[in-house]
From TrEMBL:
<dbReference type="GO" id="GO:0016491">
    <property type="term" value="F:oxidoreductase activity"/>
</dbReference>
<feature type="domain" description="FAD dependent oxidoreductase">
    <location>
        <begin position="31"/>
        <end position="381"/>
    </location>
</feature>
<dbReference type="InterPro" id="IPR006076">
    <property type="entry name" value="FAD-dep_OxRdtase"/>
</dbReference>
<keyword id="KW-0560">Oxidoreductase</keyword>
<dbReference type="InterPro" id="IPR036188">
    <property type="entry name" value="FAD/NAD-bd_sf"/>
</dbReference>
<protein>
    <submittedName>
        <fullName>FAD-binding oxidoreductase</fullName>
    </submittedName>
</protein>
<dbReference type="Pfam" id="PF01266">
    <property type="entry name" value="DAO"/>
</dbReference>
<dbReference type="GO" id="GO:0005737">
    <property type="term" value="C:cytoplasm"/>
</dbReference>
Length: 427
């Protein structure tokens, strides 16, 4: 049996208390069966319940067990590939629809937090930090691009200004996005799960979907029960396994590593990040960091292709942290953990339908916190018969990894080595 308790992360240690949720033991009927109680599944369930659907959620482990409860906790707008890349691939009309949605996920998170009074340490403000003049030029064009789609809460930071928001000598400048921000990601998921239940939705934990019986009224089987539904939403992402073989071929789980320091105290924490913004740099293999509600520094980075857990996470991430903040050399690391996200070859999310009644969204490629909340809304719209926004995602071209599942890991790792070299050489 796979380990289905939370990994020993800072988030699990500081999670809000929640009621135990039983495993599914019998046969139930519902309008929509959602597979996966991470952000995609919970967001879908909430939007559907708000629109009168009866919803049952199956979770193989616990709410937020996967990437939703382990990520860096940053609200970052747009997609892993930006709107200009999408525009070149699909043309202006589809790109306009996707561009208009690129900033919606963050708004949905804030609406959920306010409406359902979710305690998740929500803070506004995210910084993209440039390490080279070339990266700064990219941020300038990104600002123009985002403003074209009505996104105006942006400020370019010169070298003097970025020093005022982050005490790191590495950066030549940056861009501040005040509609970005950060949250305690597991507490956000737990709060959304409580909201689902407050509207009559039912969540079963320790209830992995082991088989989907497709057909006019599909049935999802778990080890001890089954759910008969009108519709299924598959929201397992990097933790789906081979439940839906057509989805496994076009995506690859990847691991990312995160550490959390001991509490730094108000003075040291404030000296690092005076406005309490979160930060990510502009490298292809990027580092990201922020303060927690109790003034720890959470620092993440690095990618392990194929999602193996590295033996010593602290040995990988601590040197990156000290490069940014040498002043933390004597600070203890209290937690180190890893989590998987799902990478696609295009680095764009995969959204679609299998047959008439099985919908899916997967492959956020590292931009999951905001995208998953949007995906839930888009999937719920499609089930209600409003498919224009769903179709804009579903029509994005996707490709299987070269060499299939056997060779996808070495291919992606080679690509990452190349881009990592470019980062180091400043190309």
């Amino acid at each position: 049996m796979a380990n289905t308790s939370y990994p020993a992360s800072y988030y699990a240690a500081s999670a809000n208390p929640v009621p135990p949720r039983p495993a599914l033991q019998d046969d139930v009927e519902t309008d929509v069966c959602v597979i996966g109680a991470g952000y995609t599944g919970l967001s879908s369930a909430l939007f559907l319940l708000e629109n009168g659907f009866k919803v049952t959620v199956l979770e193989a482990a616990k709410v937020g067990f996967g990437a939703s409860g382990r990520n860096g906790g940053q609200i970052v707008n747009s997609y892993s590939r930006d709107i200009d890349v999408i525009e070149r691939s699909v043309g202006p009309q589809q790109a306009q629809l996707l561009g208009n949605m690129a900033f919606e996920g963050g708004r949905i998170i804030r609406e959920r937090v306010a409406k359902y009074q979710i305690q998740c340490d929500l803070k506004d403000g995210g910084v993209f930090a440039a390490l080279t003049a070339k990266q700064m030029g990219h941020l300038e064009s990104q600002k123009r691009l985002w403003e074209r789609f009505g996104h105006t809460q942006l400020e370019l930071l010169d070298q003097r200004r970025i020093r005022e928001v982050v005490a790191c000598d590495e950066y030549v400048g940056g861009m501040l996005d005040m509609s970005g921000g950060h949250i305690h990601p597991l507490n956000l998921a737990l709060g959304e799960a409580a909201a689902v239940e407050s509207l009559g939705g039912v969540i079963y934990e320790q209830s992995p979907a082991v088989r989907i019986e497709r057909g006019a009224s599909p049935v999802v089987h778990t080890p001890q029960g089954k759910v008969r539904a009108k519709f299924i939403i598959v929201a397992g992402n990097a933790y789906l396994g081979n439940l839906v073989p057509e989805l496994a071929a076009k995506s690859m789980p990847c691991g990312t590593q995160v550490i959390a320091t001991e509490p730094l105290g108000d003075e040291l924490a404030h000296s690092l990040l005076p406005q309490d913004y979160c930060v990510e740099d502009c490298n292809y293999l990027l580092d990201y960091y922020r303060l927690t509600g109790d003034k720890r520094l959470i620092f993440g980075g690095g990618v392990v292709y194929g999602a193996r857990d590295p033996a010593n996470i602290e040995a990988i991430i601590r040197p990156k942290m000290l490069k940014a903040f040498p002043q933390l050399k004597d600070v203890k690391i209290d937690y180190a953990w890893t989590g998987n996200f799902l990478l696609t070859l295009s680095r764009l999310p995969q959204v679609g339908r299998l047959g008439d009644n099985i919908y899916y969204s997967q492959g956020c490629s590292g931009h999951g916190v905001t995208y998953t909340h949007l995906a839930g809304k888009v999937l719920a719209e499609a089930l209600r018969g409003q498919a224009e926004r769903f179709d804009a995602f579903a029509d994005l071209p996707h490709y299987p990894f070269p060499g299939g599942q056997l060779l996808r890991t070495p291919f992606a790792a080679m690509g990452a080595w190349y881009y990592g070299l470019r980062d180091r050489l400043g190309f």
